[in-house]
Write a structure and sequence with these properties.
Blueprint (H helix, E strand, L loop, with lengths): L8 H5 L2 H4 L12 H7 L24 H14 L3 E2 L5 E3 L18
Antiparallel strand pairs: 1-2
């Protein structure tokens, strides 16, 4: 056998050389474009379309969905992020499931 190397994804998401000073000690919410460009949290480096026509890729197939859900959460919960990436005003909220509606044609 050989050696297997595994990237510590959490450490990659906290790299000050990529994310800026303090990334390894302070959580900041960033613009969606930054996550799309700099993120390794979705295992982007495991993408190679030259191997098996891309069928062996091991990156997250739901990256776009996950980022969209995060964006919608902040918008829906009316959480405002200041220029430092900190939640500046968070109003109290409760997550509740939406009521299931039945189309009239099924009643």
């Amino acid at each position: 056998g050989g050696h297997r190397y595994v990237l510590g994804i959490l450490l990659g998401q906290q790299d000050p050389d990529v994310w800026g000073e303090g990334a390894d000690s302070t959580f900041r919410v960033r613009r969606l474009e930054e996550y799309e460009k700099l993120s390794v949290g979705f295992n982007e480096m495991a993408t190679n379309y030259g191997v098996n026509g891309g069928r062996s890729n091991r990156n997250c197939p739901a990256k776009e969905l996950a980022l969209l859900l995060g964006k919608l959460f902040f918008e829906d919960a009316n959480i405002h992020i200041d220029s430092r990436g900190a939640a500046s005003r968070v109003q109290p909220f409760t997550l509740v499931p939406r009521k299931k509606t039945v189309p009239e044609s099924e009643t």
